[in-house]
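Sequence in, structure out. First:
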Amino acid sequence: MNHPGFLKAICEEPDDDAHRLIYADWLDDHGESDRAEFIRLQCALEEVDDDDEAMTLREAELLRQHGETWRAELPGLPKVVWGNAFRRGFIDGVSLPNYNVWRSQGLAMLAASPLEMVCIHQVTPNTVRRLARSPGIDRVRGLEFPTGNFGDEELEVLGKTCRLRTFHFRYQWVQGGSTRLGPGCSRILSTSVGFRALRHLLLESVSVGDEGAARLASAPNLTELETLQLTVCGLTAAGVKLLTTPASWPRLRSLDLSHNNIADGGARLLASCPGLSELRELRLVRCLIGEAGATALSRSMFLTNLTTLELGGCQIGSDGLRALISSSNLRGLRVLDLTLTNITGADIVSLLRSPLGTNLRELDVQLIPIDEEPAAAIVATPGLENLTRLTVSVGYGTDLLQRHFGDRITIL
């Protein structure tokens, strides 16, 4: 049930939770107590630093019962794909094939839901400039360009008109000529008015480099970042050293430096950085990290709050995994990616029989050979009830694992 007056106020002032909470009271008075509870619950979850398990479970239950009904209240607009995620009680994202859909229906989308995130797939330098001048863009708090094809000049134009909390750019080469963000993007992100309130910065295949990393780390407007992704951005251990200045990231919860050649030296720097003490998610896929880097991470006194660690493609080997297993600092891990890490099926058994393993919710061990013997040992391991997702590659032992784990296992 949507009341046009309340919805209008919420959409026009999406940052003000007062409108949402008043609407929740109205819903309570009109027989929609679950919807009212859900709005209040999600608003409350935004204010807590760590997820409250009871609140999170209740949120999931309300979504299971009513999510599809609430999503169905959104209007069907041509070529508009509404997101699945609710934030502060409402669907907060939308995906569009190109700028023309935003041009023709942007205001209708903004009137239907308090959008936080707009994803536009096909863009050119020209359409980005037009987007920056379009009606309603100042009300959007997040922009994602999954196939970005524009450069620093267009980014600067966006920085003059938008007021973003989230910016996500993934470069994709286009036949016939491409434009991409270059080293200058770090200066623009660090100084433009439109990026002063950034909380989530995600850059993929952008030429940031070590010098750009230093600029980002020293930018006063980026000290409130909660998410930082710099994947395939040309970083080395020298760039990590510049990124990990002690006071750079007091609120950072998620850091992704995947596909950069930071090696063991970069891992050591991350492990010794006091400024990462609030980090919950660390992704270092294919970063040339070996046993020494894994050992450094396992001994870190500053990464004790991690719940997610991804080391896929890093050749940490059996000794590196043993360091992770023996670490009392990483007992809070719930998600662990060990894809193609030069470990064995026996190593996986040891992991799952350790205190670290019994706490895991998700484990990815693709491209690790699991024959019948380690598979049988895994099946016989007690205390794996918490493991809700196990991802493995096809092998001699996967049939046995599939019979035991059922829909909790993914075989690729």
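Second:
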Amino acid sequence: MLSSLCRWVAVLIKSKLTVRSASHPQPHALLLATVTLVLSQAVFAEGMWRTSWGISLQQGTDQAVEVSDQTLRIPLKLSAGGDALRVRISNEFGDEEMRIGAASVRLPDGSIVPLQFNGAGATRVAPRSIIVTDPVAHKIGAAADVEVRLYFPERTRLTTFKRLSAAQGTDISAAGNHTSTADFPISQSTYPVFLRAVEVAADAATPGLVILSDTKSAAPDTWVPMYADTVAGNIAVTNRSVFAGRMFFGNDGTSALARFDTDVAATTGATHLLLFVGNNDLIQPGMRGSNGRVMLPPEIALSADEIIAQLHQLAVRAKALGLKVIAATWLPYAAATPDGYAAPHKLEARDRINAWLRTADIFDAVVDFDAALKDPTDPSFLDKRYDSGNGFTPSPAGYARMAEVMAALKLP
């Protein structure tokens, strides 16, 4: 209804507001653009915006990819739908300003619509900051596929990105502005960059769920996309999970405690938080990775009580924002093969932490992934049906089971 109203008023402006010159009448383009922008900002009140897609961003390395006179294309899938959308673009880890020459969004019907910044087609993004586009009034269905395109006319280092196990998620064009071209000429692909969130003007009663987790939730083939598709008509899902992420450890800003303000508190329309994080803080001290090196020194290991205290801190901070907090129990991993992963004291600590997650008063609900995926004959192990083969990572069936269990939970 709102998008229809915007289109109706735009038609009215075009037909009624004219400036007559001596030779011929013509629409007053500047007045049309200004009134349309003011209308869109007024109609889509702040209380209606929900984050329908979002990721956690990290700082690029010294070998970060550079672009110049090139366009980036970032395809993504929304969760909740709405009557309009807007995009949050991030230069959070850039030490230099970022110049965007043009931007657009390709909508589910195939149309490509320019994105504007306070009515302008280009903008400058300050170092270590973000910018929000003007709303695009267009009806967007649940679980919709869209793509955002950004044109960079000058040399730009891709310093703000999402770390994945493979360099995929963003297409880089051949030379030129391809924000409006039907065929996108790909020169290479890289990690998802610069996009922090896509927000939709949804029903004010739509819950906004933020998922704070690690590898088991970060990749496109985990349980989160399946869950988001299942509940897309009712819940806006934002996945702020980090590949190999930790809760406490990490001097690069990727720990859940360090990124809470940007990844949770700053998520537009958030009403609920799912905590499924901390397991890497327990297992990685003293554990050897695939390269044979110890991932974290054993002497800095956290006890079960210390991990519980830090999880409690995350819940306290979420509660202070008015969020409902959901705890997720940790999966079993007694069969994990990496050296030091499944040490007996770590298995005992996991059991103690899970017992607390199930009973702590600070949580509004619990999703028991452990109970859903454990071996019924030996609860320290993953059920073979749900084990990918390494003893700790769920199989596709395991991730599907996690999505099913989460979807069965009625948000408090």
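Remark: The longest strand covers residues 82-90.
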